[in-house]
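re the bet — no i am not wrong, look at it urself. input seq straight from the record:
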Amino acid sequence: MMLPQDVKAWRRAERARLIAERMGRPIEVRRVVRQQVQAILEAEVPQLQQAIVGFYWPFRGEIDFVRFVRGLLDNGSQAALPVVVEKGRPLEFWRWTPGMAMRPGIWDIPVPAIADPVQPDCLLVPLVGFDEAGYRLGYGGGYYDRTLAAIQYWPLAIGVGYEFQALPSIRPQLFDLPMDAIVTETGIRWYRQPAQGTESAMTIVADDSIECSSPPCLLGDFS
């Protein structure tokens, strides 16, 4: 078993490798993957309709969902972007509408200029990497793990990325929380399946074969 400091170093190296590979993907390849992932979401995740959807502004080669979310808004959904309001604290999600004023946030990623916090029903969460148990490798800040641990009720958390980002394991620690599903261009992997025939996107059927980690308590892996 790797020590926490060894896991931190391994993750740092994997993160750099995967981000470099993602950013090296040709624009046309990114466009095709975006279309494939969006088609899978439309077909397999009806919970995105008529919901408050938390998404992200694309960064460093991430799949761009801005146009996809605009389509959701046209069909009655609402949208929100993640905002770091304080370093080391959970994210807030501020309502987003097309054409609204934006300002630079952390890493100069655009966020709404006016704070209007909302509670998303569903989250589209960017991936740097992911593993066979649904755990997500992010940028190392721990913001999504803190947010999901502290949130009032668990939204449908869907990690989205490229198939090449799959790893046998991210070596999850106590503070890591798995996604409910992960979507890449090859399809969707469910780890906690939404209940059928319910109106709420947050009604989840737990899969006893998936071991969920504890809320964050050890944050030594985060820089």
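see?? The chain has a mean pLDDT of 87. told u. also Helices lie at 4-23, 27-44, 66-74, 143-150. so pay up
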